[in-house]
Design goal:
Number of helices: 14
Number of strands: 10
Radius of gyration: 20 Å
Strand content: 5-15%
Strand order of the largest sheet: 1-10-9-8-7-6-5-2
Helix content: 40-55%
Order of helices and strands: EHHHEHEEHHEHHHEHEHEHEHEH
């Protein structure tokens, strides 16, 4: 069992070190400047005793590569000035894009960061999943309902499936090239999975996730690289754990609403589980945070488990409470593994 943190960039962007860089540079300028992306990626490693780093980037570089404009608006988040309004707009997207050229800045940042880390911890790459990316491309930003995007699935199922398949192809190549650049693990974020019910998830989102897992592994081999672990995080997709367990991923990341023991029973012993402390649990005192970690570690056990939060950290979080979480995971894990005891908690 080991600790892996920073699998969501929300764990980083509110720290003072990042805010200092952000005050001088546009968000996507940082993403597109390898030296800056490397600098920001390494900042958390200086603050916390982390077991992994994740390259600083954003899932929306994929829509940008397809020719869409994305703006990062303060206090609002990502905004698409011209979202997809109808299936006819799909023709405007540049699906013939050369990933190696258009997203070269990401690969350069990975290579530079891997060199600077110098073996201290593994470096992780990531991408948004097709359904989540399609949601942003149609909604034009964040949404509480995704009603515009979900309407496409019902009104234009064939066109929606075509768009998802094309995004899947691009995401697969993007992830494989990250491995070539030096990424040692990959995560696919299906952050909007919970907006779909079981049937729609299986019809539209799950086939894309399965395709990505197969294609990435094939392309990694074709590129002459060693295989790396693949993680999938389908937030709120509690209804699809069994399907995710056989979708080709090595790790399933759980959000905080999922029971660890029930999840293990449902997925079996063939995959690693990751998660899943409620991020709001970090508002508690450091002493209580340790108690929460003890309960989490006991619930997951030490078989194929990566400790983490169940989602990203919030902007008003005290960094010292995150440190308490990291330190507690390390100390509790060591005790649990060394003594093979059951931790008593009230």
């Amino acid at each position: 069992m080991h600790m892996s943190l920073l699998l969501s960039l929300l764990l980083l962007v509110f720290f003072s070190e990042f805010r200092d860089v952000r005050s001088k540079h546009d968000f996507f300028e940082i993403c597109q400047t390898p030296e800056l992306a490397c600098q920001v990626t390494l900042q958390p490693l200086e603050r916390f005793d982390l077991d992994a780093a994740i390259i600083f980037c954003d899932i929306l570089v994929i829509p940008q590569a397809l020719g869409m404009e994305v703006q990062m608006v303060p206090k609002q988040g990502p905004v698409f000035p011209t979202p997809l309004d109808s299936p006819l707009d799909i023709q405007k997207l540049h699906f013939d894009v050369n990933v190696c050229e258009k997203l070269k800045y990401v690969f350069d940042a990975i290579t530079l960061t891997r060199k600077r880390i110098n073996g201290r911890v593994p470096l992780l790459g990531f991408s948004g999943a097709p359904w989540t990316l399609m949601s942003y491309m149609i909604e034009g930003g964040g949404s509480k309902t995704l009603s515009k995007c979900k309407a496409w699935l019902y009104k234009h199922p064939d066109e929606s499936r075509m768009l998802l398949e094309k995004i899947s192809h691009l995401v697969s190549e993007y992830l494989a090239q990250q491995v070539k650049a030096g990424a040692q693990m990959l995560q696919v974020f299906e952050s909007n999975a919970g907006y779909l019910g079981p049937e729609m998830f299986k019809r539209f989102a799950l086939p894309c996730l399965q395709s990505i897992a197969v294609t990435v592994k094939r392309r990694v081999s074709e590129l002459g690289c060693d295989q790396v672990p693949l993680t999938v995080f389908a937030k709120d997709a509690h209804y699809a754990l069994e399907e995710l367990a056989t979708s080709g991923y090595d790790v399933i990341s759980l959000d905080w609403t999922m029971d660890p023991q029930q999840s293990r029973q449902r997925v079996g012993d063939g995959v690693t589980l990751q998660g899943n402390l409620d991020p709001c649990g970090l508002y508690a005192s450091p002493e209580d945070i340790r108690v929460q970690v003890e309960r989490m570690v006991q619930a997951f056990g030490c078989h194929r488990y990566i400790a983490n939060l169940g989602h990203g950290i919030y902007p008003d979080m005290n960094p010292m409470h995150l440190k308490a979480f990291v330190d507690s995971v390390h100390s509790v894990s060591e005790i649990y593994l060394k003594d093979n005891i059951v931790i008593e908690t009230n």
